Amino acid sequence: MKRYFYIIATLLITCWGCDDDEFLAREPKNILSEEQVFTDEGLVLSIVADLYARYPDYQAIGGDVNQYADLNEAFASRDYGRHQNSEFGYGDWGWWDYGYIRELNLFLEKIETADQISVEAREKFKAEVRWLRAAVYFDAVKRVGGVPLILEQLNYDFSGDPTYLQTPRAKEHEIYDFVIQEMDAIRPNLPNDAGIKDRATQGLALALKARAALYAGSIAKYGAIRTPSVTLPGGEVGIPADMANAYYTTALEAAQEIIAGNAGGYALYMKNPNDLSANFSNLFRDKNSNAEAIFVNDFKLKSGKVENWTLENQPRSLSEEGTTYGRLNPSLNLVQSFELIEGNTFAPFQTRDASGKYVEYKNQSDIFAGRDARLYATVILPGSVYRPGGDTVDIWAGLYRPNTGAIVSAPEPGQINNELQVQAVGLDGPINGFDGTAQTGFYVRKYIDPNIGAGQIGTQSDVWYIRYRYGEVLLNAAEAAFELGNPELAAEYINQIRRRAGFTTDLTSDQITFDRIVHERRVELAFEGHELWDLKRWRLAHIKFNGQSMDVNMLTQNLGNAEKTRTQVFGLWPYKIYNPGAANHGQWVFDIVKPNRVTGTDWFRLGNYYSEINNDIRNRNPLIVRNPNQ
Amino acid sequence: MLSFVFTSCEYDNYDEPSAMLQGNIVYQGEAINLADNQVSFELWEPGWQLKTAINVPVAQDGSYSASLFNANYKLVFRQNQAPFRMMLNSATNSDTIMVNVSGTTTLDVEVEPYYMVRNPTITLSNDIVNASASLEQIITGEAARNVERVSLYINKTQFVDERGNYNLARTDIAGGDITDMSNITLSLNVPDLVRTQSYIYARIGVKLEGIEQMLYSPVQKLDL
Q1: A177-193 burial by CB neighbour count: b if 16+ within 10 A, else e?
Q2: pTM (2 d.p.)
Q3: A549 contacts on B by Cβ (under 8 Å)
Q4: In degrees to the nearest 10, what's the CA dihedral of B80, B82, B84, B89?
Q5: Would the CB atoms of B53 and A630 count as touching at under 8 Å?
Q6: B110-143: per-residue pLDDT in tens?
Q7: Can you tell me the ipTM of this complex?
Q8: Of B153, B170, B156, nearest to A551 (Cα)?
């Protein structure tokens, strides 16, 4: 009897459960449907936040640290392979993220019909996402040249024939034109507020427009001069030379609107005029009404979105946990190119006098004295402090004994020499092949967070990464003005940047040359992800990275020359004089060295100017033509 | 059970390619000397749904070889990647060559270089390498290319070319400074060899304007 009861009860429960249609057709509790999301402004904002978070960066804080060593501005102190390779791969720096483009397009279509959200909010969201879409196309055209310009969602009809979805590549200049036009179109719907740093504003639209137009102008001009073979007959790669002036004009006008204050109160960061190098390093981490930042990737402690730049790059001797440090060592090639304040001149570091003897320096930092204030804010030099007012880094490669001319060193940082019973090498190296020591003699300072905790794996840093800033706008304006034959205006803009770097004598308009502009961008924007794109658009990369090996003479000559070879990384190693009882005991000498892990000679081939579009992509869409010289 | 394992293995296994395609890149029967593995051509096998090229690099003496399956292939050089151009092929009416590979197939690919290095002589006297050669311009008219420079390279190993770690020393003469194409001379001191050896290798290279890959003379061994 009891058994029958159970059977009937089970049947009843099952049938009753099945009976109700709603049981299987319930709304999910953990997922919001598209219709639900587009009814609420806050929910739409969360989609937009996700779209912002996927903004493509190259060489960015929070990304792959080793990428900063691509162009020999730094030595990757753990990733030696990149200094032993010569050729850049054709596929390097490639792009084909149409998944992202599709989501941007889908958003723009959905927001059109979201009538429960106010019109103003909708227009603003639309403008922001259109800004993002243009920024992504700008990124794409920098990397691979003209790409298919897809501005709506593409859906397959399952007919067996997808050819109607295949779009050929647009011309390179068409993508630039699209980006520039979009900026004009969306600008009225963006906020005119320089206080907004992490979302699109009018200032950002103008800044992107200026940058894109400048890139297009220089590709048109220098492509014709230096790399006439980097073109495709269909115009997918290469911009006609006669378009250069129009682009430069667009760039100058857009930059001038920002400079004139039409897009909010942007200005050079100048909170600490009495210490210009501290001022320059604060520019990158001061989040409190920073007038220079235009668009940033922001981070927040304890939120899950933190960055590891300080963790990866802190000096070994002062690292907080002693496990991760010193990943990137700026190269002497970069460090020596910071000018002397005196007379605005270039000068290599004096390591030996005319007779070939070592020049002895009383203090370790004396050799670096009198240079561009940006040097001390970009690089941690031997003999300088890590945190303001804190301890000095311990960078020296060994002991120099003047009597015998011998160098005494040790294979482990900070090791004591048995014979002399003194420390024989710095706690930060440099020691060839010892990961995380300053193998070039330098550590990087730009964007380093001096707060305690920034160097701990469990805490890390919330210093933001600036993608667009006013300093670059000024340099863009200067370059465009120079190319348009107005060196007076170029000098006016470039001198603002240089005064902030401590230069007391302005450059005259006669002194503004192409080399000057190349140099100024390099030192002002070092480690900010500009170098690759700049060298590509000026068509200098294949000249600078020509696959030839370098010696010390090649390194120290022609400083400030835009075409100077940079195929290998060099370092500057300090040695402490060990000469007890003599006056020079404890003083310093320096040697220019090529770290012994540097064996490759970088070779940027003509086919590297535009990244390879691989066979996989071209199989799916046979209309895609291949990039030249690959 | 065991047989099931073996059959499924067999299903996945393909025979390795057994055919060979080999030969030289030649101009009028003379091999063209290049930088090692820097110039390559592509073999495309038509008839498959997905197209992926087989890349075949050319050795520094102008020879190549590839292990392939028996099939018909299309052979093409990539645009602007070599210091020579393809001849018009009458069978395809383009610069593509149809190759029928079956067993060991030998094919000398006839191309047209912009220049040929003629009569290269490289001699050694008192630790100075002296080289002389003449340049014969092959392609004239609209497609002609100017000489950007002529260089002499020395290396410790038999692989010698312009790449930084393929030469110990080099000397250049710019194209504009060459007065007589039929008598180009270059000389270079033998650098200090870190590990001494009793021989070095040298060759002459010709860089053309607008083309990255250079033409070379054959590598020559010199006894110190």
Answers
A1: bbbbebbeebbebbbee
A2: 0.90
A3: 164-165
A4: -70
A5: no
A6: 999 999 999 999 999 888 999 999 999 999 888 8
A7: 0.82
A8: B170
